[in-house]
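Follow-up to my post from last week.
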Amino acid sequence: MSELNLRAERLDAADALAPLRSRFALDDVVYLDGNSLGALPAHVPDRVADVVRREWGELRIRSWTESGWWTAPERIGDRIAPLVGAAPGQVVVGDSTSVNVFKALVGAVRLAGDDRTEILVDATTFPTDGYIAESAARLTGRTLRALTPDEVPGALGPRTAAVLLNHVDYRTGRLHDLPALTAAIHAAGALAVWDLCHSAGALPVGLDEHGVDLAVGCTYKYLNGGPGSPAFLYVRRELQPRFDSPLPGWNSHAEPFGMSPDYAPAPGAVRGRVGTPDILSMLALEAALDVWDGVAIDAVRAKSLALTDFFLECVSAYTEPGRLEPVTPAEHGRRGSQVSLRCDDAGEVMKRLIEAGVVGDFRQPDVLRFGFTPLYTTFADAERAARILGSLLR
Ligand SMILES: Cc1ncc(COP(=O)(O)O)c(C=O)c1O
Ligand SMILES: Nc1c(O)cccc1C(=O)C[C@H](N)C(=O)O
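User reply:
Got it. Predicted complex:
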């Protein structure tokens, strides 16, 4: 056994989160793609079967009240809230991330007022945010400027309405400075909208602590909610009474069953709802969140950094120098929960790696991406992935 093998064994033996892995349905594959689709928590299929057979099959329409279907979006929002540093009553679950980006960004522009005529968006963003921002700008009559998060402080001014940023860059894994950027945006009198897709469930976010205005995130990555599970929307409590949703569906009405032709928004997080919630996906997500019971996000972050440090060390030990170039910052304060490595023929290399039982993903144009989900990834996984990658590249 190599020294790195032994180290992995020791690290796993000392890992307080190691028992959590048994809460997931996993096999011998080294699964490093939880930043695209989180693994299945083992108890979720039974819960989904119960929702389908009993709640839908037997209780039918009664389940909207008796099984708590109607209030699921805000109830599940309150389960996610502590993981992103939000007090209860500010997070609601529903719709896709893209739809919530639209609600949050248009809502932010409306909150900013008519004299603020420009929206700033992260030029390196996951594409959907950029597309939605472009449409939001056209619809609200604002101009849109795309620039890197580093350029944001220098671009802020009295015309800035809102800034849409990613907490962790999906391609590079770089963690952006949410507290400092939010403070700079506020100093310019603008609103900060954060996309937390790659940080929710991976690291502490501190939404309330840092005064974030609005935020969105998906639940199918580090929150393991399942393919297409509904996203979440955070609207800071003080802004809720003035939050004017661009999608004011009947589920966000103060009295939805009043069936009034006039719209009157509900108070609180409910104002972020739109139409009938996707109950099957939503209740699968709710069950999936049980794996977080008793888990502190700080402990998850500590393990994430230890795993990614160890993986990087193994990669450099097992790979010929110059073959791979780490793209993810080495500095802990700037690293999310993934490691991205630039590599010639990255698409082909990832294909062969997956065939060899190590699942990461390839991102254009030349990035091998490995996501580390501390709830179920082991140090032995990290060592094995790096060893197989090194042997494929030789
Ligand atoms: C940063 C970011 N935003 C948004 C999305 C996706 O949005 P949606 O859930 O609407 O597909 C992803 C990944 O798919 C993402 O990585
Ligand atoms: N949402 C996804 C999907 O529906 C299919 C495949 C991948 C995804 C992803 O989440 C991709 C992911 N946001 C990324 O960072 O690349």
